[in-house]
Amino acid sequence: MTPAPLVHVVDDDLDMRQSLHMLLRSVAIDARVYGSADEFLARYREQPDRPSVLLLDVRMPGMSGMTLLKQLRLEGAALPVIIITGHGDIDMAVRAMKLGARDFITKPFSAQKLLDRIQEVLDEAARDTDAQVRSEGAARRLEGLTKREREIFERIASGQSNKTVAHELGLSVRTVETHRARIMEKLESKTLVDLVLLSMEHKAVKP
User: Fold this and answer.
1) Is 145 in contact with 115 (CB distance < 8 Å)?
2) Which of 45, 62, 107, 196 sits in a 20 to 30 Å window from 139, CA-based?
3) What is the pTM of this model?
4) Does the CA dihedral 106-111-113-117 come out positive or negative?
């Protein structure tokens, strides 16, 4: 069972933290609040993986929101981030987006619009996770193919005919047909469509 989503709120303004916490809990979203970037990092690293979003203020004593965003990216964290700030400008928004922020919202903001955006980001993150799982599963299945079978698989999955594959690889059509049958058996695929879908899943999260 997929764990319930969690929203992290990092803001040095106590009133803002409490306000956001109450807003999120009012729609049954689990929320945890932190007064500093350092406090968040210390607790976040101890927590198990679960669908999450980080609402992050920019200007804070100690580590700024932008520095925290950079740190998360350096650590390879996939946590989606929504920047919330009362001091935003275009240059800051561009820098945040380049560091992987999903959105940049300036205060004051509409509570409903913020909730809608949080849900959208959670949905996007869930789709990304599903795609990653499917891609890793496809990669494991493809590991069972030989180098020659992989070459033939990739060409067939891209829509090439047996005759074209045979010509490009310098093989007979019969040899390609034999390899194709073995590939279908190894991958437990019954049709060409199955092979195409497997290829798409494997490439789904590739840059």
Assistant:
1) no
2) 45
3) 0.63
4) positive
What digits encode the pLDDT tens for the residues 25-34?
999 888 999 9
CB atoms within 10 A of CB 14: 10
Per residue in 138-180, pLDDT (tens digit) is 778 888 889 999 999 989 888 889 999 999 999 999 999 999 9
Q: CA-to-CA distance for 91 and 108, rounded, in angstroms?
A: 19
Please, what is the average pLDDT of the chain?
84
Convert the pLDDT of each residue in 123-141 to its tens digit: 877 676 655 666 667 778 8
When the candidates are 1.10.10.60, 3.90.1150.10, 1.10.10.10, 3.40.1790.10, the CATH number that belongs to 144-203 is 1.10.10.10
Cβ count within 10 A of residue 169: 14
Least Cα distance to 52 among 17, 81, 90, 27 occurs for: 81
